[in-house]
Design a protein that fits this description.
α4 runs antiparallel to α5. The chain is elongated and about 155 Å long. It is an alpha+beta fold and 241 residues long. Among the domains are: 55 residues; 47 residues; 58 residues, Nucleotide Exchange Factor Grpe, Chain A, domain 2, CATH 2.30.22.10. A hairpin with a 2-residue loop joins β4 and β5.
Length: 241
């Protein structure tokens, strides 16, 4: 009895559990078996492959070439660019013509300006050379009268004709200078005016309270409203205490 094992001592194979790693190892073996199996191959002829690639390329070209909705085609874009280029070329030609016209106008204006400058210089020189021509021409008759007066003075003894001739010449000279805006300075109430009179001599007097012109020694003249020559005078001034 002692050498026999009881039922309780026998191993219970049904109740024993397999190790946890056995199931995972079996699944890995199955995956490896599937991977090791060769995939099925399909044979394609060279002609079929060329036709397939050509068809694929045509589809890509058609997709790339086809414009989106609302956008102009390639031909329309080319025509538009050509039209714009022609328009710009026409504008460029017009600008070139305008530049040439402006250049010609500038050259003509420069030439005219140079001619005006030369003419002004020539007129200026002639003005200084002949500015007194009119005055000298008007003086010539007065010289003629002087010559006549001198001739008559030699023939006469009383000198009356000579005096009349000199008076005539004097009046002619006054009229001549008056023609050119020259007039004598007139004395007003014998008042001394330093802007018009130049005192050559003076005397003191207790009878005056301000300087007065006592005598006109040489007549003064104005040209228009400007002093040409002051009047030379002798003045009388208040006497100093």
């Amino acid at each position: 009895m002692s050498g026999k094992k009881t039922d309780k001592e026998k191993p219970d194979n049904l109740n024993q559990q397999e190790p946890a790693g056995n199931g995972q190892e079996k699944s890995e073996i199955k995956v490896k078996e599937k991977e090791s199996q060769p995939e099925p191959t399909f044979k394609v002829s060279e002609q079929e492959e060329i036709e397939y690639l050509g068809q694929e390329r045509e589809e890509k070209d058609s997709v790339c070439a086809a414009p989106e909705a609302g956008e102009p085609s390639r031909e329309e874009l080319i025509q538009k660019l050509q039209a714009e280029l022609e328009s710009k070329n026409r504008e460029l030609e017009q600008l070139k013509k305008a530049v040439e016209e402006l250049k010609e106008r500038f050259l003509r204006a420069a030439a005219e300006l140079d001619n005006v400058r030369k003419r002004a210089e020539r007129d200026k020189e002639e003005f200084f050379q002949y500015a007194l021509s009119d005055l000298l021409r008007d003086i010539l008759p007065i010289i003629d009268n002087f010559e006549r007066a001198l001739k008559s003075a030699q023939a006469e003894t009383d000198g009356q004709t000579f005096r009349e001739g000199v008076e005539l010449i004097y009046r002619m000279l006054l009229n001549l200078i008056k023609k050119y805006g020259v007039r004598p300075i007139e004395l007003h109430d014998n008042k001394f005016d330093p802007s018009l009179h130049h005192a050559l001599a003076s005397e003191e007097s207790a009878e005056v309270s301000e300087p007065l012109v006592m005598e006109e020694l040489q007549k003064g003249y104005l040209i228009h409203n400007r002093l040409l020559r002051p009047t030379m005078v002798k003045v009388i001034i208040p006497k100093k205490d």
